[in-house]
Amino acid sequence: MLDSFFVGKRMNTLMFCCLMLAMTIIAIVITEFDVIKGLTSIPKATEWAVTNFYPNEKSLTRLPVIISSLVETVLVSIAATTVAAMFALMFALAGSQTTGTGGALSFISRSIATIFRNIDVAAWSMILLISFGQNVLTGYLALFFGSFGFLTRSFMETIDEVSSSSVDALRSTGASYFTIIFQSVIPSCVPQLISWILFMMETNIRQATLIGILTGTGIGFLFSLYYKSLNFNAASLIVLVLVITIFAIELVSNYVRKVIL
Fold first, then answer.
1. 14-40: per-residue pLDDT in tens?
2. How far is CA 187 from the centre of its chain?
3. R_g of the chain computed on alpha carbons
4. How many domains does the structure of the chain reveal?
5. Are the beta carbons of 139 and 217 closer than 8 angstroms?
6. What CATH code is carried by the domain that includes residue 233?
7. Which residues span the domain enclosing 35?
8. 3-state DSSP call for residue 107?
9. pLDDT confidence band for 3 (50 / 70 / 90)
10. Both 116 and 12 in a single domain?
11. Rounded to an integer, what distance in angstroms lies between the CA atom of residue 253 and that of residue 194?
């Protein structure tokens, strides 16, 4: 019995690997990708990066401008995440199976969350560019809409998992809806909700760099400007500053999670 289980598992793994290999070959054929040329270009690309893509003394003079753009990007990401979290909590409470009132309101909340969650932030940027042009507001709204959809769905699942038993207990005592929300649901879910918000904040700071290239704002626009003007030393300094910033934010987020969880 046990042998047949492992044989079946190995067959499923083999079939999955064959399927992935077939899809890779089909993709190579369709795109006409030269695998040999791609592999042989790796040493040259590495050599170019080592000899050209590094900060030098001249690029360090641009550090104040880079830091200023980075602070703008981080603040926009934090603002978009926190405001989206507030709206997401309201929609999650309305759409949750535990706290939702049911009917049309619950369906609408879940539908809006699904639509917003399945549209990528980059897609939101391109959609909003048509209406708002290249500015900070476009990047902010793109991050807001993406965060709203993701957090609404995450908050719904958290509320359903964490607070269902306590909600049932309070309902049996005749507690009002708002009493249940503020005395049971939110207190029991706060650590998980904060964890989701911190995760979204980290993600948005990474995505804001790419969004800035499209919207012409923040650190992303500055990287694009330096790279297109062949100022690779300044562009590499931006990458280095971004990596350090992301690691620092992740360390802070992990510390906060340990404290609250």
1. 888 888 888 888 888 888 777 788 778
2. 25
3. 24
4. 2
5. yes
6. 1.10.3720.10
7. 2-52
8. helix
9. low
10. no
11. 10
